[in-house]
Amino acid sequence: MIDLSEVLTFSEAAEKWGFSDGNTIRKAVERNKFNPDEIRKSGNVWLTTYPAMVRVFGIPKEEHHVISYHHISELVSKSLFDHKDIDDEIQKILDDISEMIDKGGNVHIIESESKPDNIIMILRRKEDLKTFAIMVKRYMALMKY
Q: Taking the C-alpha atoms of 138, 51, 115 and 34 in order, what is their torsion angle to the nearest 10 degrees?
């Protein structure tokens, strides 16, 4: 299922990536930088997806923060061996994410530092953070058993 919050017009994408207009993206289309399933023209409007833009142009120029899911899973695993309560550390990470969202920033949850292009999730709203928090807490519960 397609998450419509991940679909961008070329104008929206240009603004997010700091281009003056959509011409840079159209030139990339002409040069076959996008896969055929990553772009579409709907009426007079060109559309693409956030992951496609990241693949072609990298992380957008807007303020964003990156958190590695691998780092979080390492914290949880280490806490099991050290018998340390990890809940406070995870809550601090979630609170930091909440603060970043409140300031208008985006938080990119990447797979790991070695695979920064593998974006697992992009947190833009409090609802996104709630979903991510549930995912982390489920992972923590599974690791305890």
A: 150
What is the per-residue burial (b if ≥16 Cβ within 10 Å, else e) of 81-113? eeeeebeeebeebbeebbebbeeeebbbbbeee
Q: What share of the chain is helix, strand, coil (3-state, %, to 5)?
A: 55, 25, 25
pLDDT of residue 144: 67
pLDDT, tens only, 17-32: 878 888 899 999 999 9
CA-to-CA dists, residue 48 to 8, 30, 79, 84, angstroms: 5, 14, 41, 44
- What residue has token string 């999730």? 121
The model's pLDDT over 74-106, given as tens digits with 9 standing for 90+, comes to 887 777 666 567 778 888 889 989 988 887 778
Structure tokens at 26: 């159209």
Closest CA relative to residue 40, chosen from 49, 31, 32: 49
Helices and strands in the chain: count of H runs, count of E runs: 6, 6
How confident is the prediction for the chain on average, in pLDDT?
Answer: 84
The tokens of 44 are what?
A: 């007079």
DSSP 37: G
